[in-house]
Amino acid sequence: MTSQLQDRRDPDTEAGHGHPERRSRTRQFAWLAVGLVGITALFVVRAITAEQSGLSLPGQAQDFLTLSISVIVESMPFVILGIVLSIAVQVWVPDTWIMRVLPKNPFLRRAAISFIGVFLPVCECGNVPLARGLMVKGFTVSESMTFLLAAPIINPITIITTHQAFGWDNGILVGRIVGGFVIANLIGWLFSRHPDQDSLLTDRFAAECRVPENHGHGDSRWQQSVALFRRESSVILPALFIGAVAAGAIQSLVPRQVLVSLGSNPLWSILAMMVLAFVISVCSNVDAFFILPFASTFMPGSIVTFLVFGPIIDIKMLALLRTTFTVRTLVQLTAVVALLAALVGLVVNYVA
Asked: Record keywords: Membrane included (predicted)?
């Protein structure tokens, strides 16, 4: 992908005025402040409107605050871990090591990338900065998508928690692992056929990818690591704040009873579970325990659909993915993943 991006010019440099690096650093601090202030504000408002304070908000507003904060608390450790791993890949891992150990055949290469999550057990939130780092390091867009879709499902923590929740009953665990692997590789293959993968990325991230390898020459690795941490945090934290607020708002407005009433129908139960996964935006490492109480009401295929679709597409993830991919790319990705996840659910309902 690096070679595909060589002929594109940095918009800051292209503008030809001011000091691009200084303006870029100022912009990073500004967005980092937006993310930190927004997240802090949620906690402060929640604290001063606690029931004991006498300034309590209406029930729905309290639910909104609680749900938004829960998304942040659940996601933040993995986001930070993902940024740290991204820095490790970009700064500390030798340039050609990752590319050298992966197979050359595209199909085998994407299959191997699907299992990177086994060694980097980060949930979907942390995989976004890590995938950005892998693209900067030389992954194609389609390969990074394969990683993004497979890693939250095919990693030891998710597999263990799913087994703890469901065991081997009704093929839910097997359906989740196999479904996640198949969908990730199909998506990777589909987007690898795109004639201009560069156009799938936002202009800002594409500009970051084409920064030459010797950029920052003279800086120590620790200085480069600090700069990368500032840059990735300024991108990811505001997106996490927006995603958490959106997820909290929709969860507090949509009655879950409407979704539960659809649980016994083979088709509607699958659609209801996709909507629930999209709205709830729960982390893949714990989503099996969240959905466990629904197992007695919903069919096994719809549970698998929830466990496959949720780690890939939800409100919070779309906000995070928007830092890297264009709106058109995300619409296409969402549509194809929804169709494939529904198909996996129907197959499990038929077989189980």
From this structure: yes
What b/e string do you get for 298-319 counting C-beta neighbours within 10 Å, with b at 16 or more? Answer: bbbbbbbbbbbbbbbbbbbbbb
What is the pTM assigned to this prediction?
Answer: 0.75
Domains of the chain by residue range: 59-211+220-351
pLDDT value, residue 52: 62
Q: Is the dihedral of CA 174, 177, 178, 179 positive or negative?
A: positive
Q: Is the dihedral of CA 331, 284, 131, 140 positive or negative?
A: negative
Query: How far apart are the C-alpha atoms of 311 and 183, rounded to whole Å?
Result: 12
Mean pLDDT by 10 residues, the chain (352 residues): 42 48 77 87 85 71 85 79 77 72 89 86 74 82 92 87 85 93 95 89 78 60 82 80 80 70 75 85 77 79 92 85 91 95 90 75
Question: Nearest 5°: CA angle at 71, between 70 and 75?
Answer: 115
pLDDT in the model for residue 84? 83
Please tell me the distance from the alpha carbon of residue 318 to that of residue 311, in angstroms, as a whole number: 11
* Cα 206 to Cα 136: distance, rounded to the nearest angstrom: 9
Distances, alpha carbon 26 to alpha carbons 23, 30, 181, 208, 217, in Å: 5, 6, 41, 16, 21
Structural tokens at position 275 = 């909507």
CA angle 256, 44, 55 (to 5 degrees): 75
Cβ partners under 8 Å of residue 12, min gap 6: 20, 23, 24, 207
Residues in the chain: 352
